[in-house]
Design a protein that fits this description.
Layout (H helix, E strand, L loop, with lengths): L2 E11 H5 L6 H4 L16 E5 L8 E5 L7 H9 L1 E9 L16 E3 L2 E8 L8 H5 L3 H5 L6 H14 L4 H15 L4 E7 L4 E5 L5 E5 L4 E5 L10 E2 L4 E5 L4 E5 L6
Antiparallel strand pairs: 1-4, 1-10, 2-3, 2-4, 5-6, 6-7, 7-8, 8-12, 9-10, 9-11, 12-13
Helix pairs in contact: 6-7
Length: 252
């Protein structure tokens, strides 16, 4: 359920990353090759990107399928960025939250996406939700598991955690509270990418020559440099560096 991709590198048109590759995110919305759960990602989509000199990203989100949005195709042709996070959504449960439930979620310099689901939602996550300040719960963007996961991550970011810790700790807590959850998370501030592989596919492409790193649910082309991230792993990356750290339920 859901596919997502983040890229740091030279400035390119969004379409070069999201539309033009043979197995692009757009194609993955109806024909994913490595998706563990679900077959069609038509319940919304979103793109977040950073403009040069502005640390706060712009977003374009819609509640329908990405392949039917002609405005997105036009934007992707002309909008250019060196830091992008985008996602297509397969909803865990039917709901009326519309584009508010579509990743990327955003706050300040951060963009976030969740590929997966929290098992036995919402009861399993109630103890973790109870640990958040009431004001943060009231500000949830949508009534979905992904929105709560984002709130848990954001709480840690605001407390000063680095991107990797802000993902790893909520994943560990959620995996303990709701065993069997799929918790592939993707986070960027336009300079660094952090991601977790937990229950679904995750890949990365490191292109040292172009100073570019791509992290994605699955490869968007047949470049032999794509590498699969082992399950239960935290990935952190910049344009020139990728680090993999094993994740365990009781310790990082």
């Amino acid at each position: 359920m859901c596919r997502h991709v983040a890229c740091l590198g030279p400035v390119v048109a969004l379409g070069e990353l999201l539309i033009e590759p043979a197995h692009s995110l757009v194609r993955q919305s109806w024909e994913p090759r490595r998706q563990v759960s679900g077959t069609v990602n038509a319940d919304g989509f979103g793109i977040g990107w950073y403009a040069e000199g502005d640390p706060v990203p712009a977003r374009y989100r819609r509640s329908g399928p990405i392949w039917g949005d002609l405005t997105f195709a036009d934007l992707a042709r002309v909008v250019r960025s060196g830091a992008v996070l985008a996602a297509v959504r397969d909803a865990t449960d039917p709901g009326a939250d519309g584009e508010a439930a579509a990743a990327p979620f955003a706050d300040g310099p951060w963009l976030f996406s969740h590929n997966g689901s929290v098992r036995n939602w919402p009861d399993s996550a109630a103890p973790l939700a109870a640990g958040l300040p009431p004001a943060e719960l009231l500000r949830l963007a949508a009534r979905t598991d992904s929105a709560l996961v984002w709130a848990l991550v954001l709480h840690r970011l605001r407390a000063g955690d680095d991107l990797g810790t802000a993902l790893a700790e909520p994943v560990r807590e959620l995996a303990s509270a709701a065993p069997g959850s799929r918790l592939n998370l993707l986070l960027t501030d336009g300079v660094t990418i952090a991601a977790t592989a937990w229950g679904d596919s995750l890949w990365y492409l490191a292109d040292a020559e172009r100073r570019r790193t791509v992290v994605a649910s699955e490869p968007y082309d047949d470049d032999t440099r794509w590498r699969e991230v082992p399950d239960r792993t935290l990935l952190t990356a910049t344009r020139t560096r990728v680090e993999l750290t094993p994740l365990k339920e009781n310790s990082l």
